[in-house]
Write a structure and sequence with these properties.
Number of strands: 17
Shape: globular
Number of domains: 1
Distance between the termini: 36 Å
Radius of gyration: 17 Å
CATH architecture: Beta Barrel
Structural class: mainly beta
CATH class: Mainly Beta
Order of helices and strands: HEEEEEHEEEEEHEEEEEEE
Number of helices: 3
Largest sheet: 15 strands, antiparallel
Amino acid sequence: MLRKLLIIFLLLTGSSAFAQGLKSNGEPVFKVGEKLQYRLRYGFITAAEASIRVEETTAIFDNKPVYHLIAEGRTAGSFNVFYKVRNRYDSYVDQETMSPYLYTENIREANYRRSDKARFYQDEKKVVSNKGTFKGNGQTFDVVSAYYFARNLNISKLQVGDKFSMDYFLDDGISKMEVQYIGKEVVKTSLGYIRCIKFSPSIQPGRIFRKNSKLYLWITDDANRIPVKAHVEILVGSVTLELMSAEGLKYSMGTAK
């Protein structure tokens, strides 16, 4: 369940990248050294911890410098006894276009192990992974690069109720998710009250979610555009992802007085 929720969280934070008419703000809103840490609560219990960060790298793809983006999730406390999780997702993206070149994931959940690698060829609109070659309709992202790409877009023209979709590569294919823009809210966090923009994606009921479950995400309404909180109801109870710390931000956080 942790992997599923972390992936949905990353997809949602990246989903606004594909709204019609959105343009890039130009210079990246993040910098090397940025690190965001979160806790995932099941009800009132801290079940897991997650982090997203930007690291410096000497890697070169197609003779171009890249950013190394990393997302990690792990169970916490007593959850390690029942179902230990140590998951890591890496993405290498072009420093100018934010398009991914390489995505890898290393999944360790109890006795389950999975290691995948995918190479992106944007000009050819294809992704080559361990499981084969997959063709897309346009620019395609992995779950980590989608998040950073979306943060750099101008969403000032979005209207409440607007819906848009995104294409992303995950596991064994390219999928689509629809997202709705809800509006703006002030959210109470461990870092204070923060002005946020709120979104809600479509989710599929099944092993985790109820038939009428709603997933919401709040991102800062400032130049950083970082996710502050995510909340979803599941079959039994609810799960909340909360920002606990933010280091190395390029801009001041938009706290509300």
